[in-house]
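== Protein entry: sequence and backbone fold ==
=== Local backbone shapes as whole numbers ===
==== Amino acids and backbone structure tokens ====
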Amino acid sequence: MLRTGTQRTTHHIDIDAPAGTVYGIIADALAWPVHFAPTIHVERVEEADAQAGGVERLRIWATANGEAKTWTSRRHLDPRRSRISFRQEVSTPPVASMSGEWIVEAGTAPGTARLTLLHEFTAVDDDPAGLAWIEQATDRNSGTELANIKALAEQAADTAGLVFEFEDSTVIDAAPEAVYRFLYEAAAWPDRLPHVSRMRLREDVENIQWMVMDTVTKEGSAHTTESVRVCFPEQRRIVYKQIVTPPLMTAHLGEWTVVPTTHGVRATSWHRVRLNEDAIPQVPQAGGTRASAAEFIRRAVGGNSAATLALAKAFAEARHD
């Protein structure tokens, strides 16, 4: 029998960490992309008071069943009761409506917590196939998010050096549109970037790109990465998340920005990485410690970024002459 109408799901997980730690992870939505595999990017449209709670609005991009989706969500933060309710204000088909609640409760043992995630949703035109798609995506993403929150909370006391950021910049004597176009036209990178040997790119939704790329570092190691990019042409900005990463990373976020200055435009490549500590001993070049592994990634990823920026500069300036 095909189901129609409003559907409800409930997911639970027990966590060996204090309820306050768990609540803090859920409340910090801007950090979700580095922590939660399905979340690509989050922007805060309206901010709530971190201590007192209240209403915040978020624009969220995430993967669901192999597709990239975006929506605007309204959240009510209640730190006193350790609850966060949410409702999508603008959804993407097949979702017609989506709401739910995060509930953090003290666990059965001191210093532990029980986390519950509730969802309530409907499909566009009450379509049974749409409902099945939403339920499958919700079940998969909820399980992934709860497991990630559990791991984060239980390891919260020993995360120093696991997450780090870095950036590279160059000044280009060209129109910002030309620089942005070079970064946006990733399908042409194998012909323009020596370290990119192969690229498969699709853009089913305008300005949301799904790309699979083979690269070679200066050290000669080859990697295949899969990323989702969100492009903001009016801001000349591209944010992305690698959803298939090299072994040394559990997460890699990036952002390309093109900003006019009095001396041309400044193009910047920014990265945020979360190390995969279990993989450090398996990669001899990583040096065996968090610090040495971070430096190895900085050289490899930063080297490719610097090369891309240098070629973007040559490309844009050649068209400026």
Notes: The CA atoms of residues 116 and 227 lie 30 Å apart. The chain has a mean pLDDT of 93. The domain at 163-320 is CATH 3.30.530.20 (Alpha-D-Glucose-1,6-Bisphosphate; Chain A, domain 4). The chain has two domains: 7-158, 163-320.
